[in-house]
Amino acid sequence: MRAFKAHLRGLSPYPYAKVEAPIKLDQNESPFDLPEALKEEALRRMARLPWNRYPEIHAEGLRRRLAALLDWEEEGVVLAPGSNLLILALSLAAEEVLDLSPSFPHYAHAAKAAGTPYRAVPLGEGFALDLEALLAAFTGGVLFFPNPHAPTGALFPEEALKALAERAREVGGLLVVDEAYREFSGTDFSPLGRDNPHVAFLRTFSKAFSLGGIRAGYLLASPEVAQVVREVLPPFVLPAHTGAILEVVLENPGYAQEVAAYVRQERERVYGRLRQHPLWHPYPSHTNFLLVRTPDAAQAHAHLLKGGILVRRQDRYPGLKGCIRVTVGLREEMEAFLRAAFEVAYA
Ligand code: PMP
């Protein structure tokens, strides 16, 4: 086949294989579906839309609403079906992509798919950020920096972000702070981008807002950066139906706060219990998941699956030997997980 660019040869798809299990703790989803009343209201609004017409080209109505809500410049907001698509758009536009290793795998994947030069700076012992190495490596292009960090769950200090933001300005690059898990850490780094067009923020409705299946996320950036992303994305990219759902959830943010409050409490409880495990080591987390080092990830994963519990193996990533990642689910799901975790036997 000679239809496709040579750089795509050997690119493996996003590493996810669907496995069925009654207790699903593998994708960092919200354990709660959208409240029924909000679903019904969203469906009513969908029914009133003209389905034959294209939606607004840049979801202007929603963009205005988000901008007002977040006190951000309207022209700097870009909505898309999932922040993954915004990562791809930024990677297509970037001169170079830089990230951490380990980090959310879609950054590397998107850069490689886009044919954009890609480099990663390894985290140190105990997933410590090597700020000096990262500052030295950041010589331009786009740096994807999730904070809280995935897949470790760590929260890097604001001072590090400040230094990276200044470095971005100095070298003319773009620091993209991916705040996918911000509701679980209670952080908001967006003030760092208010007077610095070299910093942008990614947010998602897939986690605390419980809309993983709907696919929606947004970018907060300077109008210049947002313009580039809009040029790369296809027009009318946000479906009208998604817009109707987002309108409803933005009018009713209370449930997302409840989801986040539950997850934080349950995460700390499970973390505390796992700290008593003789062989497993949980890492402190500021997200809706826990990274856990076990003597053997394959064995841990298989043992849990036998008990009907699906977690994610992370041992293919550099520095994550033996690690599994467990999403914070419902209380009874976490109890089942803990029971199975303490039963695991090693030969
Ligand atoms: N960024 C990070 C750090 C994530 O972990 C995820 C999802 N797992 C995403 C972005 C993607 O979010 P979305 O569902 O909006 O595409």
UniProtKB/TrEMBL annotation:
Q: Does the keyword Hydrolase apply?
A: no
Q: Which UniProt keywords apply?
A: Amino-acid biosynthesis, Aminotransferase, Histidine biosynthesis, Pyridoxal phosphate, Transferase
Q: What is its EC number?
A: 2.6.1.9
**Cofactor(s) this protein requires:** pyridoxal 5'-phosphate
The scientific name of the source species is: Thermus aquaticus (strain ATCC BAA-2747 / Y51MC23)
- Please state which protein family the record places this protein in: Belongs to the class-II pyridoxal-phosphate-dependent aminotransferase family. Histidinol-phosphate aminotransferase subfamily.
Domain (Aminotransferase class I/classII large) spans 23-339
> N6-(pyridoxal phosphate)lysine modification sites?
K207
What does the subunit comment say? Homodimer.
Pathway connected to this protein: Amino-acid biosynthesis; L-histidine biosynthesis; L-histidine from 5-phospho-alpha-D-ribose 1-diphosphate: step 7/9
Q: What is this protein called?
A: Histidinol-phosphate aminotransferase
- Give the encoding gene's name: hisC
